[in-house]
Amino acid sequence: MRMHVFSGGRLRMSKHIYLPDTAPEETIDLPVACFLFRHPQGNVLFDTGCHPMVAEEPEMRWGNLAQSVVPTTGSDENIVGELRRLNLTPADVDVVVNSHLHCDHCGCNEFFSKATIYAHEDELERARRPRMEKLGYFRADWEHPMPIVGVTGEVDIFDDGSMVLLPLPGHTPGLIDMLASLPHSGAYLLASDAVALRKHLDMEIIPKNTWSRDLHAKSHAEIKRIEKSGALVVCGHDLAQWSAFRRAVDFYD
Ligand SMILES: [Zn+2]
């Protein structure tokens, strides 16, 4: 099994949302990551990033949210463009996992019309409520005809331990991480916003954009336990860590 790391866009936000001790006028640049796994039983994509439209017309897609979550994405910097570099199209993807349903994690779901979607039941329930756009949930991102598997507990995608989904709520009610075990490179915990920045885990910081601080702290404790067992924690939006990854056509196996 191989893991490819792709860009799903880039965002600029107020830094004190992520690091509450910083001045309100400071900003932080956040990469958006997507991960493709090429497994003998199928291609699995973890998160689909931001919709291509946000590179040119962010307010058309995100409305007022685009003023606080500002895309700094290049015009071909999205998962569809990234897959093309591997000579793949969205039709080659069999399974899409959404760590949660914020617009920077499921923005390209619509293109994966041949895939089965995995998302947590609690996340789907929340996204389906009215007027959730101000919290980053847009129906255009996640409401499509593809089959959705509602996750409620641990899920081993191919029943071989290679990709296991772990509910780790806190950032949102239905946040799921993926523990991926590669034959040579070892285990990677794709943490998404359960650990947006490495500093959060190291200094026990809970960012401001958190649904439940208690559950988020519990998820941090569980993630530290998984890290001690040997997995590398891949943070959701950490520019320093992101910059060090092999990306796109290069891969981990
Ligand atoms: Zn995010």
In brief:
The protein is α/β, with parallel strands linked by helices. The protein is 23% helix and 28% strand. The protein has helices at residues 15-18, 58-62, 65-68, 79-84, 121-127, 139-142, 198-202, 213-228, 239-244, and strands at residues 2-14, 27-39, 42-46, 70-71, 95-97, 116-120, 148-151, 155-156, 163-167, 176-182, 186-192, 232-235.
Can you walk through the features of this model?
By secondary structure, the protein is an alpha/beta fold. The chain has a single domain (2-244), classed as Metallo-beta-lactamase, Chain A (4-Layer Sandwich). Helix content is 23%, strand content 28%. It contains nine helices and twelve strands. It has a seven-stranded mixed β-sheet with strand order 4-1-2-3-5-6-7. A five-stranded mixed β-sheet has the order 8-9-10-11-12, covered by helices on one side. A hairpin with a 3-residue loop joins strand 10 (176-182) and strand 11. The longest helix is centred in the last third of the chain and has 16 residues, at 213-228. The radius of gyration is 17 Å and the shape is globular. The mean pLDDT is 97. Bound molecules: zinc ion.
Secondary-structure blueprint:
Layout: E1 2-14, H1 15-18, E2 27-39, E3 42-46, H2 58-62, H3 65-68, E4 70-71, H4 79-84, E5 95-97, E6 116-120, H5 121-127, H6 139-142, E7 148-151, E8 155-156, E9 163-167, E10 176-182, E11 186-192, H7 198-202, H8 213-228, E12 232-235, H9 239-244
The protein binds zinc ion.
The CATH homologous superfamily name equals Ribonuclease Z/Hydroxyacylglutathione hydrolase-like
Helical segment tally? 9
What characterizes the major β-sheet? 7 strands, mixed
CATH class: Alpha Beta
Q: How are the strands of the biggest sheet laid out side by side?
A: 4-1-2-3-5-6-7
| Bound compounds | zinc ion
